[in-house]
């Protein structure tokens, strides 16, 4: 056991709070500080540390605990280091102070998504090494940037590089949600993330007139259609106690853009949506529905994808599936309760 700090705080909690104070918040994450933080952890734990710059200023850090049988494929523990922006005025404490109250609650951006998991990986490895354990398989911990903006400057580039292939990953664990009970929950599917920008064009003019066929009128029609669908899904979730969040499609209007002056009717306006499609949704049919909503709004209304998952992501939970058999078998062997897995998104409702 690690000794507690002067205030009775476990060193892993102190480390967690230190990590939370690193401002890896978009749009300008301090990735340099993260890499330095992880290098120090590698040194303290006696782990290998590899830094792979996949794009300018975008480094994937890999901490490695070599196994005793290099012929075996490795275990990959992945986490992302970046966090979403904050509205500081809505926080009860500074989101980058990592304030801990008298009950032990810690307030910080990224506490759950997903810096806690990174520290859990590090603490688990520390404990196992202290206890003298050795394993046949090599364990890699990968810390990746830019996940919150799609991963295009992080994992997407990393998996195409020889450094990733050299890891020889045979089994990977990633993001999830904590369970307040003693059971462990596994999320075996993920909603398809679509970031959609709808653009409406129309006749410009002076704002003192009733200009016809404006971009705003047509955009309003599309927004109304999409938000009506949102309300339908919200009601479906609320009316069925057996449904989980990940079993329905969530939609949120996240950006409105356009205009040059208050007294000028703009020629172009756009609205951006974060859509999380449930695993059972027909993606082709939903894209056709988006097209239909735009066409119904009028001429000059189009949409484009900022991000688009093209295939449903569902892992089999049949015992014949090698991933599921390996995962569930460990819990059975150790007599740990495994909560009946439910389909649904592992992504956090407040972030992605």
Please give a structural write-up.
InterPro entries: Aminoacylase-1_M20A, ArgE/DapE_CS, Bact_exopeptidase_dim_dom, N-acyl_aa_amidohydrolase, Peptidase_M20, Peptidase_M20_dimer. This is N-acyl-aliphatic-L-amino acid amidohydrolase. Its cofactor is Zn(2+). It comes from Ceratotherium simum simum (Southern white rhinoceros). It is an enzyme of class 3 (hydrolase). This protein has 352 residues and is α+β, with helices and mostly antiparallel strands. The protein folds into two domains: 11-175, 3-Layer(aba) Sandwich (Aminopeptidase), CATH 3.40.630; 189-308, Alpha-Beta Plaits, CATH 3.30.70. Helices cover 30% and strands 24% of the residues. The chain has eight helices and 15 strands. It has helices at residues 11-20, 31-45, 111-130, 155-158, 162-165, 215-239, 283-297, 322-333; strands at residues 48-55, 58-65, 74-80, 99-100, 106-107, 139-144, 169-173, 189-190, 192-201, 205-206, 250-258, 264-265, 268-277, 301-308, 313-314. A five-stranded mixed β-sheet has the order 1-2-6-3-7. Strands 11-13-9-14 form a four-stranded antiparallel β-sheet, with helices on one face. A two-stranded antiparallel ribbon has the order 4-5. A hairpin with a 5-residue loop joins strand 4 and strand 5. The protein is globular and about 80 Å long. It starts with 10 loop residues before the first helix and ends in a 19-residue tail after the last helix. 28% of the residues are buried. Residues 341-352 have low confidence and may be disordered.
């Amino acid at each position: 056991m690690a000794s507690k700090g002067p205030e009775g705080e476990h060193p892993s909690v102190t480390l967690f709070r230190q990590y939370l104070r690193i401002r890896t918040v978009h749009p300008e994450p301090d990735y340099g500080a993260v890499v330095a933080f992880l290098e120090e952890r590698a040194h303290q734990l006696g782990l290998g540390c590899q830094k792979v710059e996949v794009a300018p200023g975008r480094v994937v850090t890999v901490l490695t605990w070599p196994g005793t049988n290099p012929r075996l494929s490795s275990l990959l523990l992945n986490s992302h280091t970046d966090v979403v922006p904050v509205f500081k005025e809505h926080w009860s404490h500074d989101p980058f102070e990592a304030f801990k109250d008298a009950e032990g609650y810690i307030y910080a951006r990224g506490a759950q998504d997903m810096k806690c998991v990174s520290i859990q990986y590090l603490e688990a490895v520390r404990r196992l090494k202290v206890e003298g354990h050795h394993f046949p398989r090599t364990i890699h911990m990968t810390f990746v940037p830019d996940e919150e903006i799609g991963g295009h400057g992080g994992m997407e580039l990393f998996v195409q590089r020889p450094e990733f292939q050299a890891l020889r990953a045979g089994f990977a664990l990633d993001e999830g949600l904590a369970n307040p009970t003693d059971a462990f929950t596994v999320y075996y599917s993920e909603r398809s993330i679509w970031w959609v920008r709808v653009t409406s064009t129309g006749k410009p003019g002076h704002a003192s007139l009733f200009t016809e066929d404006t971009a705003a009128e047509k955009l309003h029609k599309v927004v109304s259609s999409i938000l009506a669908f949102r309300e339908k899904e919200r009601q479906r979730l609320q009316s069925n106690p057996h449904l989980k969040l990940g079993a329905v499609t969530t939609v949120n209007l996240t950006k409105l853009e356009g205009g040059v002056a208050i007294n000028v009717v703009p020629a172009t306006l756009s609205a951006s949506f974060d859509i999380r499609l449930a695993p059972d949704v027909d993606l082709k049919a939903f894209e056709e529905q988006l097209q239909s909503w735009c066409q119904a709004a009028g001429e000059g209304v189009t949409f484009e994808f900022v991000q688009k998952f093209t295939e449903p992501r569902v892992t089999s939970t049949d015992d014949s599936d090698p991933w599921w058999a390996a995962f569930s078998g460990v819990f059975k062997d150790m007599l740990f309760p495994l909560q009946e897995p439910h389909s649904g998104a592992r992504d956090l409702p407040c972030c992605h």
